[in-house]
Structure prediction request, 398 residues.
Amino acid sequence: MRGRVCGVGVRMPVYGVGARMPVYGVGARMPVYGVGARMPVYGIGVRMPVYGIGARMPVYGIGVRMPVYGIGVRCPAVGRARRAGDRCQADRCRADRCRAGSPRGARVQRRRARGVERDGRGQVGLMMALPPPNSVPGEPVPSRRALIRRPSPRVADGLVTHVERRTVDPRVALAQWRAYGEALRAHGWETVEAEPADDCPDGVFIEDTVVMFRNVALIARSGAETRRRETAGVEEAVARLGCSVNWVWEPGTLDGGDVLKIGDTVYVGRGGRTNAAGVRQLRAAFEPLGARVVAVPVSRVLHLKSAVTALPDGTVIGYEPLVEQPSLFPRFLPVPEEAGAHVVLLGGARLLMAASAPKTAELFTDLGYEPVLVDIGEFEKLEGCVTCLSVRLRDLHT
Prediction:
């Protein structure tokens, strides 16, 4: 027996004995509509996405996990994504719901690839990843993922600003890029390759496209207009890794190479590629998450990280002729070579650095570190360094 009961402007299907009845309560999904936003709400023990004030952060109640999307943070859209970045990671909790070989299973797999799922009534909902076993609620899970992108066949046409143009061999560049990725993997990092950008000569310098702080990704807007197309594949990649995605909007400009993170302190180079509006937008995105943003003038090099990076203990290292105000950093260690100012922290005492800085490698060895040298000479001709070729995701939330 089936009847309908109507309340104040609400039509509600009611089912009798033996009929199937959707229940909106404990453990069930209930569509709730707030101010201009659709919010799926789940009961006890079920994960619940909520769109509210603040950046994305795990919030825990009674067995309920809740990622929160806030002001200025663009959350994955319910329904058809309006752009490539508005996608969520596939929902593993329904992995065995359909056989992959069946027609229904194939349809589900295609929807998962788009980051959306449909329930039995044809409604579109978000797919969220379940936390891994034994994870601690609210804590960042140590992550060793590095986002990389294959160099374009046109890499030799990349921009140069502070150096004279030299001939770049695309075949040698590809071989060096492969060796760089192998060095990361050999030291415990999982490399995630973003979609190639063959029409973007500088696309291999993927660090410039996005800035990470915890599990929030800020998609950059380069001060070099020709490089702005590089972000499309990166938006999709970070969204699939479970990051909350935000964007730098006009008139702001920001290159990821201008951002140096040391703990919760975020140094931002204010120079040719990053303007004041970009610094303000980065501050608005990350300070609510606990970041302390410090602007640093940059005019002698392309990016802040062309001049300085940091050792595992937080000491900033740099080639002094290219560092404008070393006093801005609590601890500063000068290095004898320009290429020696660039290190990627691989974990423990290991430092990934360019083979073109042997004197600096010797200095670091004397300080108790373990330099891991890679040849990136073709990229150095384009003002690139070891940090430019990857985006390290170290503390994603689950």
